[in-house]
Amino acid sequence: MPKTPDSSRRSEHSRQAILAATRALISEVGYEKVAIEAIAARAGVGKQTIYRWWPSKGAVIFDSILALSEDADGRDLALPDTGDLEADLKRVMRATVAEFADPDFEKPIRALTAEVINDAGLAAQYRDKLARPVDEAKKARLRGGQRAGQLAADADLDLVLEVLYAPLFQRWLQRSGPLTPEYADALVEAALRAFRPG
Amino acid sequence: MPKTPDSSRRSEHSRQAILAATRALISEVGYEKVAIEAIAARAGVGKQTIYRWWPSKGAVIFDSILALSEDADGRDLALPDTGDLEADLKRVMRATVAEFADPDFEKPIRALTAEVINDAGLAAQYRDKLARPVDEAKKARLRGGQRAGQLAADADLDLVLEVLYAPLFQRWLQRSGPLTPEYADALVEAALRAFRPG
């Protein structure tokens, strides 16, 4: 162990502690009640440390969610590819539906979504940093399906993704129906029927 | 003109003034900056009048949007029915897309949606008072399409509505793509392909 403190490592440690504290507090008390003071206390840092790195509460929340996705990126963003588009999409959609049905997972995402709705600047950041890389990975798998003749060659892939994911997004966001494996399957089947090869 | 003041008429007048002031302020300054004080000043009533009728800012916002829909209900909630489901849905979806592309219309709805996301109680109220009556009117038209052989007889109509409307909802909410008449048409065509008869 070095005796000289490594200040950049200490900064990274504080940053991660702040992001983890933010996610924990969102899940425990909900976004509206999360205060910068509480994040600082939980992370063991001063309030000024947070304000030095982030301009607002919304920005800390955004980065706390983005950090989750960066962890995931490190592993693998690509969708499974067994050669069977329908089976692969059902596997992915069942996992996604299960995540959104899990309170610990969904609470921070719900908080971020509410922020994004009211803030056009944050919406642009969200699209560029979070949504677009994930969408590109999904589209790569859809292109494989097009080459295999399992999806119309002229399908608008942005529209395919919307037909596939937006119903789940809306049902989750508005709490308007059950999030079940059967629902995941039904969405995949509807999207593939809508964009079946000529 | 009666010389005796009609207190119930005055109350209704104040209620409508408060709801109109709320909608105007949401459009002008955005939900987060709307204050009960400003609503009261704009409506020409005391703050206590507002607190007597509504428990929270979220509740006033909700009723201000609901009042719009009640006006609409008074006229007609039913979808057009020319006998051609695709043409009728395109007409309705083009109008809906145009509304969501209009800043004056969309701002109060965006504010309400952000409220509904974070408040499960308000979400239930939203479903019962606003979403369900509108969805029932849409389903009545879809059933006509089923009888005419233009939509699969065994189609899950909740799922049909989600495939039709959720992509628009998501694209509008996340500002993730253009809201055009062509987009409206593409959604109708995708939904009808997904739920084509046998």
Automatic annotation (TrEMBL), chains A, B:
Keyword Glycoprotein: no
Coiled coil: none
Cited PROSITE patterns: HTH_TETR_2
Keywords for the protein's UniProt record, in alphabetical order: DNA-binding, Transcription, Transcription regulation
Keyword hit for DNA-binding: yes
Residue ranges constituting the HTH tetR-type domain according to the UniProt record: 12-72
One GO MF term: DNA-binding transcription factor activity
Annotation: DNA-binding region: 35-54
Any matching Pfam family: TetR_N
InterPro entries: Homeodomain-like_sf (IPR009057), HTH-type_TetR-like_transc_reg (IPR050109), HTH_TetR (IPR001647), Tet_transcr_reg_TetR-rel_C_sf (IPR036271), TetR_C (IPR011075)
Protein known as: AcrR family transcriptional regulator
Organism ancestry: Bacteria, Bacillati, Actinomycetota, Actinomycetes, Streptosporangiales
